[in-house]
Design a protein that fits this description.
Protein name: XshC-Cox1 family protein
Order of helices and strands: HEEEHEHEHEEEHEEEHEEHEHEHHEHH
Number of helices: 12
InterPro entries: MoCofactor_Util/Proc, XdhC_CoxI, XdhC_Rossmann_dom
CATH architecture of the largest domain: 3-Layer(aba) Sandwich
Helix content: 25-40%
Organism: Mycolicibacterium aromaticivorans JS19b1 = JCM 16368
Structural class: alpha/beta
CATH superfamily of the largest domain: NAD(P)-binding Rossmann-like Domain
Radius of gyration: 23 Å
Strand content: 15-25%
Number of strands: 16
Length: about 400
């Protein structure tokens, strides 16, 4: 929903009703991840996407209908459906999309979600998407680390979902949870989609050089909150890095250590070391390689890389810690310009995040998309999932 939040909020504030379609579950090579959303405004205009164009027409019709009837519904699109090719989902994937009307009456706490996301505070929305009692459909909780608002229909259901949703929020994950109709943990009948909106992941770019400007632009494009840091104030200026969220003048290792101490880094954080100067790199990497972050890459030639490893070993880093370093940074794309190099770095970050191999898709078989842990979907898992419905 975050990608259409501004459009949804504008409709909500006028007191009108929007139709909202949200991807809640995917199987195989589905084109969008859970949480992707599409909004149909009262004037018929559309924002967002649930499938990259495959089923938007069908979801548009459903969104228009649920606004008229006031009755949310869960719909499935995929090649196993009789109408799959009619609506255009030919990629082999399966999408579950929850379509609902959204208004101030049906979603009174939307303003809390808007404020939390704008202020980079974690927030989760837990919405009932299946239930034996149709009146429960679309009921939701809005959860923050210390507060919960709304109700699903009973204290028991609220308590169970609150506990589980906060666990998903802490991990930055969105998922469908299954309970009995009154929130029984061992039961079936009620499904709740938890959409976690954690603060944007951070990208820390060290070294105020032309390559850093290009990397900052790529990072911003990918949705990172980008910080550029360099000890040289004459180079580290906002004017030179207009796409960065912040530009910091400080010694890189000192800034990184302070951020770690403040709890401002997490397992999604990306660190790009572009100075290729030992007096900056080595102290910085001594700190970085001992952190639990998502990616650490360092720029430099093969000779620079070998010298850097030697210095880091002398500084006491273990082989396990050194193995976390991507150096020389980026994938082998034949890049030459700063912009091309930034694309190669972004490609490596994406590959490491999702378990990609960095090979042309035309040269490899199997699934195009990977699971969150980077592994292909095990044989039979799709049929196992589908057999539950």
């Amino acid at each position: 929903m975050q990608d259409v939040l501004a459009e949804l909020a504008a409709i909500w504030r006028t007191g009108a009703t929007a139709g909202l379609g949200t991807v809640v579950r995917t199987f195989r090579s589905a084109p969008r991840q859970p949480g992707a959303a599409m909004v149909v405004a009262p004037d018929g205009s559309v924002s967002g996407s649930v499938s990259g164009g495959c089923v938007e027409g069908a979801v548009y019709e459903s969104a228009t209908e649920v606004v008229a009837t006031g009755m949310p519904r869960l719909e499935r699109y995929g090649v196993s459906d009789d109408d799959a090719f009619a609506v255009g989902l030919t990629c082999g994937g399966v999408l579950d999309i929850f379509v609902e009307p959204v208004s101030q009456r049906r979603f009174p706490h939307l303003d809390q979600v808007i404020d939390a996301i704008a202020e980079h505070r974690p927030v989760a929305i837990a919405t009932v998407i299946t239930h034996p009692d149709p009146d429960w459909l679309g009921r939701r909780l809005v959860l923050q680390p210390e507060t919960v608002d709304g109700t699903l229909g009973s204290d028991r259901a609220d308590a169970a979902v609150t506990d589980d949703a906060r666990g998903l929020l802490a991990a930055g994950r969105s998922d469908v949870l299954t309970y009995g109709p009154d929130g029984q943990r061992r039961g079936e009948g009620m499904e709740v989609f938890v959409a976690s909106h954690a603060p944007r992941p951070r990208m820390l770019v060290f070294g105020a050089i032309d390559f850093a400007a290009a990397v900052a632009q790529q990072g911003s494009f990918l949705g990172y909150r980008v910080t550029v840091c360099d000890a040289r104030g004459v180079f580290a200026t906002p004017a030179r890095f207009p796409t960065a969220d912040e530009v910091v003048v400080d010694w890189p290792h000192r800034y990184l250590a302070a951020q770690a101490e403040a709890g401002a880094l997490d397992a999604r954080t990306v660190i790009c070391v572009l100075t290729h100067d030992a007096k900056f790199d080595v102290p910085l990497l001594e700190v970085a390689l001992r952190l639990d972050v998502g990616y650490i890459g360092a720029m430099g030639s093969r000779r620079t890389h070998d010298d850097r490893l030697s210095r880091l070993r002398e500084a006491g880093l273990t082989e396990a810690e050194l193995s976390k370093l991507a150096s020389p940074i980026g994938l082998d794309l034949g890049a030459r310009t700063p912009e091309e190099t930034a694309v190669s770095i972004a490609a490596e970050i994406i590959a490491r995040r999702w378990g990609g191999r960095g090979l042309p898709l035309s040269d490899v078989g199997g699934r195009i998309h990977h699971d969150d842990d980077g592994s292909p979907l095990p044989a039979g898992q799709l049929s196992d999932h589908l057999s539950r419905y």
